Amino acid sequence: MHLNNGTVYKIVDTNDRLPTGERFKLLCCGRTVPHQPNNVIFGGASAYDGEGVEGIYVWNSQTQTIATLVDNTRYQLLRHISGPTKVTELGDFFFFATNPSIPLADGLYHLNMFAKNNQTVPAPMVLRGSALPRHKNDSFLRVFTAFGNPLAFVSSAAGETTDSMLLFTASGSFGALGVYVINATQALRPQGSSALFGRGEKIKIVADNLDGVHHFGGFPNSPTVDDRGNIVFNADTNDKKTTGLYYVNECGNGKGSAPVQIRNVATPMAINIDIQFNSVSNGVVAFYTNNGTVDQLWYAVLNE
C-alpha cells in the first residue's frame, strides 16, 4: 500500500500480473526506496513451487506500473530468487538466489536502485565456493557452502552515510559456521575482487565457531543490526551460561568490537531465543524467549 495524506493505495495483489504476463501467486518483502518516494520494491512469483517466474519488482505510484528489477527469465543463471533486503540510503539492496543445476551460482547478490533506468546486472557478493575469511591459527582453506537471509545497513562517519553493508549468517566447509559482514560499497569498486566468485577477501568475521575463544557452536537464527552498525546475534555454546545473545559494536567500518554477551537477558530455563531483523535500535534490543511453558518478550540495553 502507498500512503499519501492519509489515503491508502494498493501496490499489488494476486489479481495483478507480472511484467511477463503471468499472475502473481506469491508476494513478499515490500521495501520503500530512500530518495524515491514514488517507488516500492518487492518480491513476487507466479508459482508456489519455485518453478514459475520469480523475481524482484518495482512499483511506481505515479505511473501505477510494475517493472522488473531482476527475475529468472532475464537472468537465467538465477533460478530461485528471494525477496529483497531493505534499500539503503545509497540505493543498494541484496537478495539470495540459487540454481539447482549450477551450485556455484548459489549466493547473495546486489543491485542498486539508483543505477540508470534500474537496469544493472546483479553482482555476486558471496557465492558457494567463495573463500571464507581465515583466522591466523586455522590451517584449513575453507569455502562458503550455504547462506542465511541477508540484511542491509549503512556505515556512518561524522554523522554522514558512507557505505552500504551486507550482513549474513553462513556455513562453510570443514564445519565452519558464522556471522559475516561485507562493505559492499568498497567491494563493488572497480579495484575490488573479481565478480566471478564473489568478494571473498572483502568479507569480515563478526563471530564464528573457529575463533577458539567464545566456543560458539552455532547461530540458530538471523542476526539483527541497527543504523549504527551495532549487531546482535544469537549463539549456542557448550555452556548454558554462555548460550544466548551477543552484540558487536559499530561494525559499520567492517571491524567492530569483539562479541560481548548480553548478560541476564533471560531466565536460565529459556530454551528458545528469537530476534527479528529489526529488533535493535538506539542501543536497545527486543527479543522473545520460551522456557517450555511461557512465552515472554524482553528488551536489553547494550553496553550494560
Structure at a glance:
By secondary structure, the protein is mostly beta strands. The chain has 1 helix and 24 strands.
Would you report the number of β strands?
Answer: 24
Tally of contiguous helical segments: 1
Label the structural class.
Answer: mainly beta
Count structural domains: 2
Q: Give a short account of the largest sheet.
A: 5 strands, antiparallel
Rg, nearest Å: 20 Å
- Estimate the helix proportion, in percent: under 10%
Cα shape: globular
- Roughly how many Å apart are the termini? 40 Å
Low-confidence spans = 192-198
Strand coverage percent = 35-45%
What's the pLDDT, averaged over the residues? 84
What pattern of helices and strands is seen along the backbone?
EEEEEEEEEEEEEEHEEEEEEEEEE
What labels would you give this structure?
5-stranded antiparallel β-sheet; mainly beta; single chain; 304 residues; 42% strand
Notes on the structure:
- This protein is mostly beta strands.
- The protein has two domains: 1-84, no CATH class; 85-301, no CATH class.
- It is 1% helix and 42% strand.
- It is built from one helix and 24 strands.
- The strands form six sheets. Strands 11, 12, 13, 14 and 15 form a five-stranded antiparallel β-sheet that branches. Strands 16, 17, 18, 19 and 20 form a five-stranded antiparallel β-sheet that branches. It has a four-stranded antiparallel β-sheet with strand order 3-4-5-6, with no helix packed on it.
- A hairpin with a 4-residue loop joins strand 23 (284-290) and strand 24.
- It is globular and about 55 Å long.
- The two termini are 40 Å apart.
- Mean pLDDT is 84; it is low at 192-198.
